[in-house]
Amino acid sequence: ETGVTQTPRHLVMGMTNKKSLKCEQHLGHNAMYWYKQSAKKPLELMFVYSLEERVENNSVPSRFSPECPNSSHLFLHLHTLQPEDSALYLCASSQDWTSDGYTFGSGTRLTVV
Amino acid sequence: EDKVVQSPLSLVVHEGDTVTLNCSYEVTNFRSLLWYKQEKKAPTFLFMLTSSGIEKKSGRLSSILDKKELSSILNITATQTGDSAIYLCAVGAKGRDDKIIFGKGTRLHILP
């Protein structure tokens, strides 16, 4: 394991479903991130949390709702998604949000049907 | 256990030098190898390699994959201070193991 664990690995959901993605790190990092990797598109930063506080939100639709209950856990709550939201969702962590040494999880492959 | 290992972890060179960054992997059901440049929070995509022995070039950057050796190199010629960044290597796995595994990155610093 890379130190950042994401579950589930795969998720198929309908457009009316509500589901959550989970990310966990025990590296002692203070910052955690959600990224979206769509086919043939650049990696997109979605949310940044530092010490459990959201510090960046890059114009992400409200159907994506992050939650950071503590510095080791990060969730992405999903509801009423669209098929174009199908992608690989990556979680990462770093020592703090101004540093650039990241550890990435392996991703959750999300398919919206 | 799937893993991606990059070397060196850190590299400091002078402007104009040529650098070679290495990435080796052990990944079940290999699909592709990707190189990213990270200067800010969102890594910038550089190359995706799927076929062994075919070099991909973009300006002063080039990369090639060796599936026999389970490795890839990223070359940067005539380096500039703007090349200073962390270079990330990632490997995508296909099928039931559909996932992407990132290396720790090589921190490159170009001295003027």
Structural notes for this entry:
The complex is a heterodimer of chains A (113) and B (112). Chain A has 113 residues and is mainly β. Chain A contains no helices and eleven strands. In chain A, the strands form two sheets. In chain A, strands 2, 4, 5, 6, 9, 10 and 11 form a seven-stranded mixed beta sheet that branches. In chain A, strands 1-3-8-7 form a four-stranded antiparallel beta sheet, with no helix packed on it. The radius of gyration of chain A is 13 Å and the shape is globular. The mean pLDDT of chain A is 88. Chain B is an all-beta fold and 112 residues long. Chain B is built from no helices and eleven strands. In chain B, the strands form two sheets. In chain B, strands 2, 4, 5, 9, 10 and 11 form a six-stranded mixed beta sheet that branches. Chain B has a five-stranded antiparallel beta sheet with strand order 1-3-8-7-6, with no helix packed on it. Chain B is globular, with a radius of gyration of 14 Å. The interface between A and B is medium-sized, with 24 and 22 residues.
Secondary structure layout plus pairing:
The complex is a heterodimer of chains A (113) and B (112).
Chain A (H helix, E strand, L loop, with lengths): L3 E4 L2 E4 L4 E8 L5 E7 L6 E7 L2 E5 L6 E7 L2 E7 L7 E8 L8 E2 L3 E5 L1
Parallel strand pairs in A: 2-11
Antiparallel strand pairs in A: 1-3, 3-8, 4-5, 4-9, 5-6, 7-8, 9-10, 9-11
Chain B lengths: L2 E5 L2 E5 L4 E8 L3 E9 L5 E6 L6 E3 L2 E6 L4 E6 L8 E9 L5 E4 L3 E6 L1
Parallel strand pairs in B: 2-11
Antiparallel strand pairs in B: 1-3, 3-8, 4-5, 4-9, 6-7, 7-8, 9-10, 9-11
